[in-house]
Amino acid sequence: MALRYIDRQLNIADYALSGFKRRVARNVVVVFIFALVIFMVASFSLTTTSLKQAAGRLLETVPDITVQKMSAGRQVSLTEDAVDKLENIFGIRSVRPRVWGYYFDENNGANYTVIGHPKLSEKSPLPGLGIDYLPEMQLDTVAENAVIGRGVRQSLELGSRRTFSLFRPDLTLKSFITAGAFGADTSMVTDDLIIMDLQAARDLFGLAPAEITDLLVDVANPLEIDNIADKIGERLQGVRVVTRERIAKTYRVAFGWRSGFGLACLFGAMAAFAIFAWDKATGLTPAQQREVAILKVVGWQTEDVITLRFWESIIISASALGLGYLGAWMHLLFFDGVLFRPVLLGWSVLKPPVSLIPVFSIGDLLIIFSLSVLPYLAATVIPAWHSAAIRPDSVI
Amino acid sequence: MRLSLRFLLFLAVCISAQLGLIGAANQRLAASSEAERRIVRSIEILGLSDFCIATDARYVRHLAVSDRLSPFMDHPGSIEHFPTGSFWIPER
Fold this sequence. Notes:
Chain A is about 50% helix and about 20% strand. Chain A is an alpha+beta fold. Chain B has helices at about 5-30, 35-45, 60. Chain B is elongated, with a radius of gyration of 22 Å.
């Protein structure tokens, strides 16, 4: 019984496929466009899932609490005495003052992130970060040591040179010597970094000796982070306290369909499906009506014609899903999501080599299935019934 | 070979290729574990909070230590105009 049923279904599928062969150009175009829509939706979905997963794996060691002072809605400098106000809060393991900021390179329009680090004045100061330290070098002029990211090195066009200069706010030049460079494998977080000594960073930004940008607070018990964040908010007036959980939450929601680009992908897909549905719903051509009439004359029942239409929809949507989803994986895995790079990088002059590894998620596949195949099948139900209900004597 | 079997064969090839790609991605992920360890350490030592993906807008470069109003702070009536802003959703 089951074998007979399967054989009957395969026969109808055979007939549907032979029909496609007769209208091969039209059906290839339909499958191609359908696959293209699925490719776009799947590429976006894979990119966002990949970024979310990377954030979950990599951002686990972000500071427990970051404290920034706010004034008129903007971040302003703190002074080092803020450290003393926090150090006697029970549960805080350490408070690290930090100086950091952005440096806009007017020569090429690039933005660098400058971080002052107290350990950079030591010898071999930051082990385990994949920094290639260069041999010490003596210069006639005073130059501060700096460790730079791969992108900064390229942007400054250093080549074999190791010295470079940056402008202070009063337009005097401050010289640096490249003590080391971050490896390309950490570019996802270090590409635009210039790490220098804390005092050198203050000097570059024109900050007073006791001024700092923010405080990094390390908490002994992770369960106490929220309580300690509240206490910090009470002790220091007008500060913004960013906890590790808030950073994780930011990155959990930062990528998704609600973004402008996600909505553009989604609306594009919906518009394409609307056109498909309109094409199907506008009825059959006289040739297709005659075909259905002949099938009914030779003994096909209404149910058989509906099954035929169902198979036609399955063949088109399954082929498109297979090709589109496969294409999206190849797009990310072998071409680093090259089509999305202009949106991801935007007007960035310094372009980090974002290499995203797609992650398979059954949830994503189901979303793509329900956004593509299900609407197509649903859009073909009523036209299938209409075509199956044709009376042979009204057509032939 | 009947056409329906050819179609099923085509689907089987697609599924096999897909499984191959998933395997290749997992292999690449495993091979990047040393680099990931360095990234995690860099984040810890330097107190980093964000990925370096786009470097044009400050609020996209450092999304986690920014807020929903940052894109509109350049001047009164300022609108968000960086293309990268269309890819990211600020935290509620």
